[in-house]
Design goal:
Blueprint lengths: L7 E6 L15 E2 L2 E2 H12 L5 E3 L12 E3 L8 H11 L4 E6 L7 H9 L6 E6 L2 E2 L3 E5 L3 H9 L14 E4 L1 H5 L14 H14 L2
Parallel strand pairs: 1-4, 1-6, 4-5, 7-10
Antiparallel strand pairs: 2-3, 6-9, 7-8, 7-9
Helix pairs in contact: 2-4
């Protein structure tokens, strides 16, 4: 039996406005369940510590058995959600996930957790982009993030120079089957159709 990941709290950011989707992305149906339910189920199976959802609309999650916390410095984008996740987490590290990324890859998540030691921040770099919403943050990031937010600097990549950041490149990611799909997110109805088709194909 594979042991659950210890010492890291999974944190799901669910604070986006979902304007391009036209409805709250967290509650879009994917594979017969809402996206947030699908993500939470995967994370609960992987991690020893229970997930924390960061949302400024906690009442929406009242029917789910999950801890929900608000941003402490609201209206400042995803960096504010990461700040809240670090503040509320009972562990030295958090693993941050967007609520619109349903194709999480357990093997890749486990690999990232084995490479986090020695870094304050571990970020995948894939397809020409950094993916800070599928990344591991240590508590050492809390104060630098707070300083950035107080300066109204919301750009996640600006954090890289303020802490000891490590990166996992495309070559390492592609060694794990389907790991690149981890970064597929649902922003529009067209994205939803594409991911539904992908899920249908792999379950055939």
């Amino acid at each position: 039996m594979i042991k659950p990941i210890v010492g890291i709290t999974p944190v799901v950011l669910a604070g986006g406005k979902s304007s391009r989707m036209g409805q709250d992305k967290a509650f879009v149906q994917v594979g017969g369940q809402t996206m947030i339910e699908l993500i939470l189920k995967k994370l609960t199976a992987l991690f020893c510590l229970p997930p924390i959802v960061i949302s400024n609309a906690p009442d929406k999650y009242a029917d789910l058995d999950v801890r929900v916390e608000r941003d402490r410095l609201p209206d400042k984008g995803p960096l504010s959600g990461i700040h809240a996740g670090l503040y509320y987490a009972p562990s030295p590290f958090i693993f941050v996930f967007g609520c619109d990324m349903p194709l999480l890859n357990a093997a890749f998540i486990r690999q990232m957790t084995t490479q986090a030691e020695g870094y304050d921040l571990l970020v995948p770099e894939y397809g020409g982009y950094y993916h800070p919403l599928h990344a591991i943050y240590s508590q050492c990031c809390l104060q630098p993030i707070e300083a950035m937010l107080k300066q109204d600097d919301r750009k996640l990549s600006h954090l890289f120079a303020r802490v000891k950041a490590g990166f996992i490149g495309s070559e390492a990611i592609e060694r794990i089957p389907s790991a690149g799909q981890s970064f597929a997110n649902i922003n529009t109805p067209a994205d939803l159709v594409h991911i539904q088709d992908y899920l249908n194909n792999i379950t055939m």
